[in-house]
Every structure is written in structure tokens, then in C-alpha cells.
């Protein structure tokens, strides 16, 4: 921002300013919420629901990977430390990540609360997160577990085919192309992502269950876990989420 932010605001179109003011007024009546989203590998529908929850409850979306990259790019004190670790090929320490979350949730956009995505992945991280929030006098309100049967996930993921240049996606069962293996629009061949194979999925699921199940148990003891039926259609899952959060 320019000095004091004034010059920048003067350049913002009136419509955008009014829209943002109206959004903030609407948000002011919303209850604060601090949420954690836990979902297995891609395909659990977490990515579809988080923007909907973010907009509905005026929360900020904190994806730890993006935040780390932003802290490194912005050369914040924590970002500089994180970069040192990454350059050495080390994992960024839990304390650093919690510190970056701590900084992020003080921003005005996080005033109503936040959605944490991709963290905590271990019980130690969950404990550190709880300690940090306790110091601020807050706590996690709900943990949304996008539970889905491994076999259904496998069907969802291994059936995905992509048209590389346009990003159009197909699914052999749920959204097949008109001609198998060929993009409807361009007629070019479809490819399958390297990650979208049964083998890759199997190893991802194994590490997910090994690491993340204990985290779900940790929060379950606090009675804040909501088990969602992630195999349902996105619309049905949205309704489930709204019930849980209302």
C-alpha cells in the first residue's frame, strides 16, 4: 500500500468500495468461527467447499503452503527463517508455521475467524496451534472432517482425465468425454495426471491415515469434530456443512 493507504483507496472504483462496505456490514452480524478442514488426498471435496464456507461466514482461508510462500516472498522475519530451512532442504519447523498462522490471523480479513487448510497434520502441530490460540484467548470451534471411503476416492481420482492446454476435466464415469480419450471441444487427446493413478493414491492414503487419523482423534476428544459425508454431491455436502456450522 502507498503511504497511509489513502492514495490507493482513491484509485479504487466506487462500486468496488461500496461492494466491500456492504460485504463488511453483512459480515459484522456473522458469528466468529475458527475452523479446520481435514480431507484426505484430492477428491474429498474440501477444495470445493472451502470457498463457499469462506464467503458465507466472512472468514479468511489460510492454506499453509501458500502462506509460507507469501512469507518467503514478502521477506518477513519468519519468511526469512523459513527460506533458510527450505534452502537447506529441511522441513519448516512447526513453530515457524504456527508463527506464520499467528501473524496471518491478526489481519483485518481474518477478523471473523479463519479456515485452516492443510494444517495441523500431526498431533504435535495441533497442540502447538491450540497453545498459540489460547494465548490470544480463542480456540478452534469446529473441525470439518471430509470423510470418504478409500474405494470411492479411488474411483473419483483414477477416473479423471484432463485436456492439458485448456484444463478441461473429464471423468470416465461421472463426466465422460463424447469420444473416449478425446477432448470434446478440440478433439485433442486427454491425459491422466501422474498423481491420479491408483498406486500414487494408495501411498497418499496410507500416509494420510497414519498421520491424520490421530489428529482427528485429538479433536474428537474435545468434541468439536463434525464428520461430513464427503461422498455425497457437492450441493448435499454444502447443506451438511451449513447444518454443522449453524
Proportion of residues in β-strands: 5-15%
Counting helices, strands and paired strands, the structural category is: alpha/beta
Strand order in the sheet with the most strands: 2-3-1-4-7
Arithmetic mean of pLDDT:
89
Instruction: Work out the helicity level.
Output: 40-55%
Number of strands: 7
Unreliable runs, pLDDT <50, ≥5 residues? none
Radius of gyration: 20 Å
Largest sheet: 5 strands, parallel
Distance, first to last CA? 36 Å
Quick one: overall form? globular
Work out the helix count. Answer: 10
Order of helices and strands: HHEHEHHHEHEHEEHEH
Describe this structure in words.
This protein is of the alpha/beta class. The chain is 49% helix and 14% strand. The protein contains ten helices and seven strands. A five-stranded parallel beta sheet has the order 2-3-1-4-7, sandwiched between helices. The chain has a two-stranded antiparallel sheet with strand order 5-6. Strand 5 (160-163) and strand 6 (168-171) form a beta hairpin. The protein is globular and about 55 Å long. GO terms for molecular function: AMP kinase activity; ATP binding. This is adenylate kinase. Catalyzes the reversible transfer of the terminal phosphate group between ATP and AMP. Plays an important role in cellular energy homeostasis and in adenine nucleotide metabolism.
